[in-house]
Amino acid sequence: MPIIKVESLFYRYPESDSPVLKDISFAVDEGEFVIVTGPSGCGKTTLCRCFNGLIPHFYGGKMDGVVEVDGLQVSTTSTSELSMHVGFVFQNPENQLFSLTAEKDVAFGLENLGIPRDEMRKRVDWAMETLGISNLRDRLPQELSGGQQQKVAIASVLAMQPKIIVLDEPTSSLDPYSAKNLFEVVARLNREFRITIVLVEHRLDLAAQYADRVFLMQDGGLGIQGDPRDVFSREDVRLLGVGIPKSVLLGQTIEAEGFKLSSVPLSASEAAELLRKCVFS
Amino acid sequence: MIRIEGLSYTYPTGIQALKDVSLELRDGEFLAIMGENGAGKTTLVKHLNGLLKPTSGRVSVDGVDTREASVASLSRTVGLVFQNPDDQLFSETSEDEVSFALKNFGFSKEVMEKRVSWALNLLGLERYRKASPLMLSGGERKRLALASVLAWDPKVVVLDEPTVGQDHNQKEILRQFIVQLNAQGKTVIIVTHDVEFVAECAPRVVVMSRGRVIMDGEARRVLCDESILGQASIIPPQVAQVFYMLQDLGFPRDVINVEDARRFIVARVRPG
Amino acid sequence: MTLRVLDGLKFRKAASPIHTLDPRTKMLSAAFFFFATVLFSEFLPLMILFMVQLPFIAAGRIWKEWARSMRGALFLGIMILVMNLIFSQGLVYSIAMTTRFLGLLSSFSLFFLTTSPDDLSLALQKWHIPYELCFAFTTAVRFVPVLANEAQTIVDAQRSRGLELEKGNFIKRIRNYIPILVPLIVNAIRRSLDLAEVMESRAFGAIKKRTSLFELRLGSGDYVAFLLVAVGVALVLYARLGVKIPF
């Protein structure tokens, strides 16, 4: 059952002549984990903002085509309504936290929606527990590391109980350990709570293994999409300059030598296992 | 020649960011400094142009003790490119931006004009000469910041997290550019936690954790040491991880790129 | 040195009986000290008013920060002393004026050091100040340290390009700050746009009646404080109207 439906989407920013999104169509099923990637400037960030209503309501501009999210038409539904269906985690951890304690930030969206205090308390505790940050509840935002700040941001989104969470390059400023940890947390939300995940990322080496599907954007259009193992094995994708995980490249180089691997490795452990099974046994 | 001897630094707030760091860098070396957030990497490089003066120990650049020189004079030799270009871009045009440092350093008008053209061309920004830096994309602003530092031709170029926010293509172009700078004789220091990028560049690698240097050596050795990297919140390159997991089959612990991995595997399975 | 005064106006988290008091109670107490201090020009009562605050400062566990701010204010205090002496106001009066200044500063310091901006915001909302203003206030406070760090980074970046802030004549020195101010302001504007996007995504402004995770509730400590303030008002009025003050 598609929870996100996009048909012939065109979008042009207000002061611009040329469209940033050109004729995009796709569907995402409920519970899917989708990675959107592509070179800088291809429109990934713009596309994301069409899911929670920032486009067209916050940014203006001209949007043509259909974007339907959890049964709602984005063009005619307010961002506040959409925020209960689609949560958005932004790139910069610092600029997503307004309050002076982590706990108040997690409650922020709920306060805005007028959720009664008892319900709010339950949801805030649950969200912080799920993200493993209950011990950070009284901390000031500047006392938190980038990774912790992002977890508070995700908790504040999770508390609003959306069916879809969109993350726009959430690990951009994080060190590799924190990035890996963040992806694991997001993958857990996807598995345990069936939350549909749309993740925009360049750091495919850490994230690829969690994705059900990869969308490759180019120049405002959606060029290639499919199973990450298929997409990353393609020659034309490699030539596009996408950061294909080294494990995939290793697999390809070995196969070029005449060995047969039973699948495409997306992570180091998969690559090691395949080498052990198919080459060294 | 940069010499760091027993450098310790404590911030006015009381936090000790560097503990007894010693390092020597010859002219023309290529160095990557890696470590977790808060390890002291940026604090360390800020000592190279005198922004910070040692609490104890000594830092000297080409024989000059940094305590006895101004930031401006040390910056002539050591060009520091900060992580966020928006923390330095302020001029009305890209041209003005690049000439800012040249004016500060007292270059003559003719030399300034030549250097500005050279720097803009080098970074592919000539067509934005009269454009406002605010009009440029994120990647272009990063290049403009780099151009404005290279313009005065410092002997040492330090890049703080140059790959953050860049896509794969941009990173590849940057890597080639850095290698070229180093080939031209410049000492290049990159501060980063992008381990795959460092694996591709294969420079000398210094790993820092909690204010100390915990390892210093060839990329091939350093990037395969799981326990050292773990202390600094760094994940080894994927190829190194694969080889680590296959140690029991006799896989070596010094392979960090796909090409070397292929060579080893082929030699192993088809000896002779 | 004088900037140290600002240290005494920043909230410092601690577990103390003063911290747990309702911000409205603290505002009332600060107002009492303010009016009482203004009511007297004689040294003795002003000194008493100053000393009365000390046990509360001890109870609030904010000695260090309070002392830092007092040290910073010393310069201004001495200026007031000197100015008054120059205008032939007599030694006792001049000292009284200095005491008044320090007493006022101390009461503000006591208030701000023990009241979190979040609680203050809740109190203001209870007094029907629009939420948008309270939100702007707490968000501003939250980002002050971020902006301070950013300013330092910008100064470092520009100094690394040869900018020497201390060089040049008066006009040149002012112009030296343009490369600091422009990035600071541009970044602040960029940050505001980012924040607006996030606010929109978290349903800010969705409904008029916003709820709140925390609520202000008056406790026994607050009632004790009210009592003390009432007693204080009585004593102050008596002292002003019914008693002859020696000096």
In short:
The complex is a heterotrimer of chains A (281), B (272) and C (247). Chain A has 281 residues and is an alpha/beta fold. Chain A has twelve helices and ten strands.
Q: Largest protein interface? A: A-C, 44 and 33 residues
The CATH class of the largest domain in chain B is identified as: Alpha Beta
Q: Order of helices and strands of chain B, N to C?
A: EEEHEEHEHHHEHEHEEHHHH
Number of strands of chain A: 10
User: Mind telling me the C-alpha Rg of chain B?
Assistant: 20 Å
**Approximately how much helix is present in the residues of chain A?**
25-40%
Q: Strand order across the biggest sheet of chain B?
A: 6-7-8-3-9-10
Structural class of chain B: alpha/beta
What are its keywords?
heterotrimer; B: 272 residues; alpha/beta; 2 domains; 11 helices; 22% strand; C: mainly alpha
Your description of this structure?
- The longest helix of chain A has 18 residues.
- In chain A, helix 6 runs parallel beside helix 7.
- Chain A contains twelve helices and ten strands.
- Chain A is globular, with a radius of gyration of 20 Å.
- Chain A starts with a strand and ends with a helix.
- Helices cover 38% and strands 22% of the residues of chain A.
- Chain A is of the alpha/beta class.
- Chain B folds into two domains: 224 residues, P-loop containing nucleotide triphosphate hydrolases (Rossmann fold), CATH 3.40.50.300; 36 residues, no CATH class.
- Helices cover 38% and strands 22% of the residues of chain B.
- Chain B is built from eleven helices and ten strands.
- In chain B, the strands form two sheets. In chain B, strands 6-7-8-3-9-10 form a six-stranded mixed sheet. Chain B has a four-stranded antiparallel sheet with strand order 2-1-4-5, with no helix packed on it.
- In chain B, helix 3 crosses helix 4, helix 3 packs parallel to helix 5 and helix 4 packs antiparallel against helix 5.
- Chain B is globular, with a radius of gyration of 20 Å.
- The two termini of chain C are 32 Å apart.
- Chain C folds into two domains: 115 residues, no CATH class; 79 residues, no CATH class.
- The model of chain C has no long low-confidence stretch (mean pLDDT 88).
- Chains in contact: A-B, A-C, B-C.
- The interface between A and C is large, with 44 and 33 residues.
